[in-house]
Amino acid sequence: MTSRRKTGPVQAVRPGERVATPTDADRASRLILPRVSRTFALGVKMLPPKLEAPVRIGYLLCRIADTIEDDLAAAPERKAQLLDEFLACFDDPRLAEEFGLCITALSSADEYLELVATTGQVFLTYRMLDEPTRFILRRWITEMVQGMRHFVLEHRHGIRIASVTEFRRYCYVVAGTVGHLLTDLWHEHSGAVGDATYARLLEDCEAFGEALQTVNILKDIAWDCEQENAIYIPADLLGAAGSGHDALLHVERRTANRAALEPLMRLAQDDIERALRYIEAIPATALRIRVFCVLPILFAVATMRDLEQSDAMLIPGGSLKISRAEVRALVVAGSTSTLTNRTLRWLVERVRKRPFTFAGS
User: Fold this and answer.
1) Mean of pLDDT values over 310-318
2) What is the pLDDT of residue 5?
3) How far does Cα 197 stand from its chain's mean position?
4) What 3-state DSSP class applies to 169?
């Protein structure tokens, strides 16, 4: 989930200019985070200090690549070139400092252009991390970016997912890789996540990331179609229901389009269940990691509850968001009800039934 909220300008170094100090770069990355994702910024604050910086930096690097992939102004070949140049920044600090020049080719919202302009600073904070952490971030971000590059060139006129198989491949590229990245960081930096726990987490780490991606796709159907020239609902599901990509937002096809979403709804619920198993496998002694993982899953559960009762995502200009009051309540409840798996399951089942808010909200 992204945020348009302004928090004051980040003092980004102009493209090509040398970053002043690592402290400046770290401060810039902290300031830009809530501008590109308010909810993620909330979760990062929950993490232990040893994990806060790696997760923050990893997220910002992913969002820089995502901004390039999603941008409507750049041609596919230019996007592929920019993604290649982005990966080259891992090896060459000079290229990282100069990468922000590419914003002249992009048309994204101001806060995302600002993030791309700070690429040199984000990579400087990356180089401040220890070697094992840098290896983890580089490994999984490289796999993500290479996958993005493939989709950019394969869908030259905007993403149009053809099949459920391709849908799952896309979700792995942009979100399953993140599940691996986070799990490797837990293993590297938390004494509570030993080898046996790590092996158990690997069984469901892809589903943890992909559940969030599928829910975001379902709630943002109209936005993606109208604003991003992207349709992620598989053509084979729409065709089987008597519709197609060109009729995704047509009122006369709404019943068919709603029916086409049912397999993705089931997929999302299955992945949410696996994500909950993932969280349950994290020891209570790693409570802050559990809280970080619980919050987005609670938001996903609440969003799925509303999606199952709404057609808003299939209406031109429509959108579906859980209320700010529920977000606030879930942050509090998720931060205090995750010590045991029993209380976690109670909270999830409660959220599935009706909006979770405090009295007077």
Assistant:
1) 95
2) 31
3) 24
4) helix
